[in-house]
Structures are given as structure tokens and as C-alpha cells.
């Protein structure tokens, strides 16, 4: 009985083994290994940029939503009507307030100061003495005439605070050393104490009086200085007078 033998695989030669290995390497790396590596790297790249993409997307959506809301609000007729109604109410209130202020009794014009029944105004510009007299007359007043110690102290304080040399309505133009106010009344002896030491000295034809420092000084009437006007206050009720005098403008208000 003859033994049947299965055919044996022939051993591969070196060349055949090399071809098989090369063939396997070409198949597996190309079809599996290389493509897996490439796909992995692509996926990792996408995941790495995901936060930035999400952030940009969120910002875009938020911006679009905000614009849509603003457009909707601007087109809302109800909001526009409410705003217009509020503006009309405010305008009416201001008109009524202005009318009420105009009806108030003011003892002194705006930019004048009330003191003991009189109104005073000190300028911000400068003129010579004669032009200062005219400036006060043009507003229905006089270049200030001082009649009491209280009035003198008040005016001297205001002049000192403003650091201004200001004309008063006193001169000896008609007769040397005979000082008279612009209304023709003489300077009372009780007020002569307010001349500064050594004044009036009439140096260089100094015939007009000014507030200077803590007292009075005579100077040339042609010199340009500030001036103070005075006139009687308007007649108001007691309540109105006290109310408005408490909010009177300072003496150094703006001048014409």
C-alpha cells in the first residue's frame, strides 16, 4: 500500500520572502496604517480649532440677536409714542415754570444785589467817572451815593472781595475840597472817616472818589475804573421780597 503524502509547501527563497514582505508592507501601511494616521491628524486638528469656531459662532448669533432686538424696539410705535408724550409734558412744564418766574415780583433786576431796600450793581468793564455816571443813568440808577455806615461797610466789602477799584458818585469838581454827591448833596462829616490815610490829597487834579482798599481815595476823573450803580428796590410783598432777596445775584454779577 502506497503511502499518500500531502504536497509539502516549498520553502521560499530569499527573493520570494523579500517580495512577500514588501507586498505586505505596501498593502497594510497604505490601506490601513497611513490612512488611519492621516484621519487621526485631521480629526485632532478639527478638535483643536473647535473652541474658536464655537466662540465666533456664538458672537455672530449674539450680534444678530442684539441687532434684531434694537430694530424691533425702534420700530415699536408704543415706545415712540411714550417718548414723544414725555417730551411734550416736559416742554409744557418748562413753559409754565417760565411764566411763573416772569410773574414773580423781583425787588431788583437780575444781576443786581438787594441790600436794605436798595439795589446795587458793580460793572465788569471800566469807564472814566463821567461815563460811569451816564452808564448808571441809562439803567435808571445813580452812581452810588452812600448814606450810612452800614451801606458803606457793605459796599467796601463787596469792592474788596472783587479786588476792584470802583467809582462812587462823589467829587469836588464844582469846588475844590468841597465834596458832593451826584445828586448835589454834600458829604456828611460822619462819612469823612472813610478816606484812606492822607486822602483826599488832590495830587494831579484828583477830583473824583473811588473805593480803594479799605477806604476811599481821590483820583483823576479821566481814569478808567469799574463803577457801582444804585437805585431803589421795587415794591413787593414781604414774603416775595424776602424770598427773592435771599437768592439775589452777587454784587459782582456780569455787567453790560
From TrEMBL:
GO MF term list: D-mannose binding; virion binding; virus receptor activity
Segments crossing the lipid bilayer: 50-71
Signal peptide region: none
Domain C-type lectin: 115-230
SMART domains (alphabetical): CLECT
GO terms (BP aspect): adaptive immune response; cell-cell recognition; endocytosis; innate immune response; intracellular transport of virus; virion attachment to host cell
Protein name: CD209 antigen isoform X11
Organism: Sapajus apella (Brown-capped capuchin)
Lineage: Eukaryota, Metazoa, Chordata, Craniata, Vertebrata
Name of encoding gene: CD209
Amino acid at each position: 500500500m502506497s503511502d499518500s503524502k500531502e504536497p509539502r509547501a516549498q520553502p521560499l527563497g530569499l527573493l520570494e520572502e523579500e517580495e512577500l514582505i514588501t507586498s505586505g508592507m505596501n498593502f497594510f501601511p497604505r490601506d490601513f496604517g497611513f490612512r488611519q494616521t492621516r484621519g487621526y491628524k485631521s480629526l485632532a486638528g478639527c478638535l483643536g480649532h473647535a473652541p474658536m469656531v464655537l466662540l465666533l459662532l456664538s458672537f455672530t448669533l449674539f450680534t444678530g440677536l442684539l441687532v434684531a432686538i434694537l430694530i424691533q424696539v425702534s420700530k415699536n410705535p408704543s415706545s415712540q409714542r411714550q417718548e414723544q408724550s414725555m417730551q411734550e409734558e416736559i416742554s409744557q412744564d418748562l413753559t409754565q415754570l417760565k411764566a411763573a418766574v416772569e410773574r414773580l415780583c423781583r425787588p431788583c433786576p437780575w444781576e443786581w444785589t438787594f441790600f436794605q431796600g436798595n439795589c446795587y450793581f458793580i460793572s465788569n468793564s471800566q469807564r472814566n467817572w463821567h461815563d460811569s455816571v451816564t452808564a448808571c443813568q441809562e439803567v435808571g440808577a445813580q452812581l452810588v451815593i452812600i448814606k450810612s455806615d452800614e451801606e458803606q461797610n457793605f459796599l467796601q466789602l463787596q469792592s474788596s472781595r472783587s479786588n476792584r477799584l470802583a467809582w462812587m458818585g462823589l467829587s469836588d469838581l464844582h469846588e475844590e475840597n468841597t465834596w458832593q454827591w451826584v445828586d448835589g448833596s454834600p458829604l456828611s462829616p460822619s462819612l469823612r472817616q472813610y478816606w484812606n490815610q492822607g486822602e483826599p490829597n488832590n495830587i494831579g487834579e484828583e477830583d473824583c472818589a473811588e473805593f480803594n482798599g479799605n477806604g476811599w481815595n481821590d483820583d483823576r476823573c479821566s481814569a478808567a475804573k469799574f463803577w457801582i450803580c444804585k437805585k431803589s428796590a421795587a415794591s413787593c410783598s414781604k414774603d416775595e421780597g424776602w424770598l427773592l432777596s435771599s437768592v439775589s445775584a452777587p454784587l459782582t454779577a456780569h455787567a453790560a
